[in-house]
Amino acid sequence: MNGSRALVTRISASAAVRFPPRAHIAKSGFRSRRCTIDSFPLESARSGEWKLLGRTRALAAFHVYVHLALLAIVAEQRAPSLEDSYGPIRMVGSRTALARAHYLGEQLRALCWQELGQAGKQFVDWFSSILEVLDPTPPVPGSRIHLLFDHYWRAAREVGNFPSTAERPDIRDLLRTLTRDEVESARTVLTTMNEDHRQFDDSLASYASDDPVTQFVSARLLIAETILNLSPHKYKLSESNMADDTVK
After folding, report:
1. Is residue 248 within 8 Å of residue 144, measured between CB atoms?
2. In terms of DSSP bridges, do strands 37-38 and 52-53 run parallel, antiparallel, or are they unpaired?
């Protein structure tokens, strides 16, 4: 409890600007098409949708994820005392919420800044100042790998929840093909980074006799862990972005 109170106190003391009024968030009459933010890293794996967020939805999503990050941090700090009464805490993890908030804040500044009014810019500045308190070691600007792999692994978990595919040879064949193709892509990334993939191959061999669903999920987890572990902060693989672009 003391840790949670201390965090709230730090946030209150560090807010750089006052919370802006609702009016003048965006410039009136501004119709630029430039402010569209790719929502793919934020989508639910089961939605199957890939949208572009305009300035209003992006601002709304940004402030929601900052709030979620704070809630998740406090929930994780208090988990031992809360779980006895309420059971395991099931919600977006603090790292995921922080990563998405950083992404949206960065994109708002890069793509939507000219479409925001003074209050809109203060809105972004205020929540960004909160993020600085919540996450003193933010992702490297421009990094996307951690977001892509979060989506990648969430999709694998959805597949793992499929009912039995014993009577669906088409799905089993599709999963085998996807696993083979993704393993080859992972090897390409490792080669691009001048990494030896023999240990990766040895780990894969242990899944060879698994059913297609288990093999697919296990391979994706191995791919994500192997590639992310090559990045010191699990945000960016190379300064040149060559390996990062291969992952995308």
Report:
1. yes
2. antiparallel
What's the whole-model pTM score? 0.70
Distances (CA, A) of 40 to 65, 87, 100, 122: 15, 32, 11, 26
The span from the CA of 36 to the CA of 111, in Å, is: 7
Are 114 and 170 found together in one domain? no
Residues 108 and 159 in one domain: no
Dihedral sign (CA 179, 185, 188, 194): negative
Last residue in a domain, options 102, 134, 166: 134
| Same domain? 128 vs 152 | no
Are residues 49 and 121 both part of a single domain? Answer: yes
Residues pairing with 53 in the sheet: 37
Pair 176, 204 in one domain: yes
| Per-residue pLDDT tens listing for the chain (248 residues) | 555 566 655 655 555 445 555 545 665 544 444 577 776 666 554 444 445 667 788 888 899 999 999 999 998 888 888 888 888 878 888 888 998 899 999 989 988 888 888 888 889 999 999 999 999 888 877 777 777 787 787 788 888 777 766 667 888 888 889 999 999 988 988 888 788 888 888 888 888 777 888 889 999 999 888 888 877 655 555 555 555 555 55
Domain annotation covers residue 216: yes
For residues 237 and 248, what is the distance between their CA atoms, to the nearest angstrom?
Answer: 12
